[in-house]
Amino acid sequence: MKEQILSVGIDIGTSTTQLIFSRLTIVNLASSYTVPRISIVNKEVIYKSAIYFTPLKSQTEIDGDRIGEIIRQEYQKAGMKPEDLQTGAVIITGETARKTNANTVLQTLSGMAGEFVVATAGPDLESVLSARGAGADKISEEKRQTVANIDIGGGTSNIASFRKGNLQGTSCLDIGGRLIKIENGKISYIYPKIRELAQRHGIRICEGDPADGKVLYRVCEYMAQQLAMAVYLQEPDDFHKSLYTNDGRPLKREPAIEAVTFSGGVAECMRNGGEADIFRFGDVGVLLARAVLADSAFQKIQQYQAAETIRATVVGAGTHTTNVSGSTISYARDKLPVKNIPVFRFTEEEEQDKKAFLEAAERGISLYGSEGAVEQMALAFSGKYHTGFRQIQELASWILEGADKILKSPYPLIVVIENDIGKVLGNALNVMLERKKAVICIDGIHTQNGDYIDIGEPVAEGHVVPVVTKTLIFNGTVE
């Protein structure tokens, strides 16, 4: 079996709105005598839209009508119709995700094609998406290093670090090119934290002041230094902590960052040498690009070219694979189907150590939470270190201890395993929970951090459930 499907990715960010169309080729790699195993064998980005400034009605509201017009125009230019598309993703990111009508806009756009991953990406999730779009995870795996991607956008800088392909941590700072805006040669807007950063270094800037390139470049130098502090290339100062978005947490110092990639709109300016017209975009993005390029701390560390810069998030939010979970599974039938469930995957090292496992579980559940509330999600791991009866009992106890917040939520406990232990692990969980909590435990499915999954209604007399793994596309090029 060989089939081609069309996918769309839409990213509505702080500064820019854009979309891509991809053609995915999927085949059944299994023999006639085994359960189907469907995988992507080729992925091709066939259309990249123009890049638009994200239209706003005000500082607190997205212009949803204009967004809709942009998307429809790009569909027409690409020769696409909603009915042509089988899958895709709509992601609202950065400061735009905080606008009062963000969810309304998402729901409106999600109706334009197929089954979408519809998510308002918080700062941590956006960090993962942009880093995968930039290819930092693959670089870390190939180079056997700890690599951090710094996605410098209009309103925030999202950071995700990977060691040998595995996600180590995320953070997000209120550092971005549009936190100082320029109109008609004057400063029209200054984000309060950036104003305070400038004041701490003896620089006084106010709305209405002439846009002095030399003065604003000095401010951008201090912004670049804060980014270097975020990956511990420079020791954080006493102001650094206040720059984390939503009072978020910094990266851990270990494992130490050995290399960096840059993505986002500012990184696009860096790749273009900083642009000649410093206020071309009506902000300080070009100056910030120059400041990062010139920063002494960043010059001392290995830098790799990102696979994508300004398109990293939209490319990172993209493609889908379909699979099935076989007969050795356990599930609460009345809880299926479930769709668009974000996945947190444990590393193999975390699977082998209880303390590391519990710390990772807390981090993963927080990653997909919203303002302290637990959201529906899935916990995933290889399962190859817990195959005997006693080991599976041990793993079940770890899961229940680490997933305490999920157990107290209205959502089922969803566990996704590669190894063939889904049924026995699910039974162990059900016994320990005295069947007072719905459990969905499936196996034979490979996932990674940042994926989403759909689990369909059971088929084949209840022995198999179809699973759609919505994984990430990167290194795409237009042919």
Task: Characterise this structure.
30% of the residues lie in helices and 27% in strands. By secondary structure, it is α/β, with parallel strands linked by helices. It starts with a strand and ends in a 9-residue tail after the last strand. It has three domains: 2-121, ATPase, nucleotide binding domain (Nucleotidyltransferase, domain 5), CATH 3.30.420.40; 125-314, Nucleotidyltransferase, domain 5, CATH 3.30.420; 327-463, no CATH class.
Number of distinct beta strands: 22
- Name of the CATH class of the largest domain: Alpha Beta
Helix content: 25-40%
Number of domains: 3
Give the structure's gist in a few sentences.
With 479 residues, the protein is of the alpha/beta class. The protein is 30% helix and 27% strand. The protein folds into three domains: 2-121, Nucleotidyltransferase, domain 5, CATH 3.30.420.40; 125-314, Nucleotidyltransferase, domain 5 (2-Layer Sandwich), CATH 3.30.420; 327-463, no CATH class.
